[in-house]
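Course assignment 3, question 2. Fill in each field.
Student: A.L.
Task: Predict the tertiary structure for the chain below.
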Amino acid sequence: MAFQELVEQSRNEIAHDWREAVGEIMGVATETVEEPLLLNSVPLVLDEILSSIESDDGQIDIERICRATCHNREQKRERFDIREILREYQILRVCIFRYLHTHVSQFAGRNGGDIATIRHRIGQAMDQAVRESINAFAENHTGQLRHHSRTDNLTGLYNHRTFYTRLDEELARASRYANSLSIGLIDLDNFKFVNDT
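Answer field:
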């Protein structure tokens, strides 16, 4: 069997086992599992990790994994849960190593070396994938928190904290360059009605 066929077969079996294991952890049937956070990225993660077996340097494309992991997360911001990501990666690690143990003869003797070397490379690749994915999610979450701290939830406009921060910056700039500074205030009649509705 060609190596790429082996990777594809392995990927499909591991992804299936992983989905079932996630379902068992959640205590529900596989068909009714709420979409795991890593669902879209698992095939790509597995392709990169399993392909690293054949490579001399054992490097994986972390950027591709992160793009896949973060794919389509804009609609799922409220589901950000670092514990869930860690749990899903841990389950994936177990599924990969269980599969390798069962199919050791297919992987041993590849350009990547003996099975101990392969396990070491895959362990490193998984650690990198976990680290980079968590960093990407944390960065995204931090950006969300920053946005919420600067804007009004109702209108989406900048809040008073942002106003005073920007005012301080502009006062300092005007003072530094000896420029004049103007502030415009607008009073909208009946705006409470707009706010309330």
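Instructor remarks: The chain has a mean pLDDT of 76. Residues 115-150 form the longest helix (36 residues).
Grade: pending
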